[in-house]
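Researcher: I'd like a candidate sequence for this fold, 76 residues long. If you have to choose between options at a position, lean toward the conservative one.
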């Protein structure tokens, strides 16, 4: 089992699609979005600004994106 990390923008990372799915289901994901964060699938981080890390630039995180697409029809 993964360790539980309290929702904290910036330091929190979600790299496992299953964890992301859990977050969407339990409402934590939406809470971060409501707080003004945007989720970047490349590095699995919540940020308020645009993420320019190399992973995001290379378009990583397709599996995480699929999970989001499954639950959200609109672009976040
Ligand atoms: Zn990034």
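Model: Candidate sequence:
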């Amino acid at each position: 089992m993964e360790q539980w990390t309290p929702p904290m923008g910036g330091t929190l990372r979600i790299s496992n699609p299953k964890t992301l799915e859990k977050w969407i289901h339990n409402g934590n994901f939406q809470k971060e979005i409501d707080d003004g964060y945007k989720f970047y699938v490349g590095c699995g981080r919540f940020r308020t600004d645009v993420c320019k890390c190399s992973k995001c630039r290379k378009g990583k995180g397709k599996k995480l994106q699929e999970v989001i697409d499954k639950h959200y029809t609109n672009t976040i």
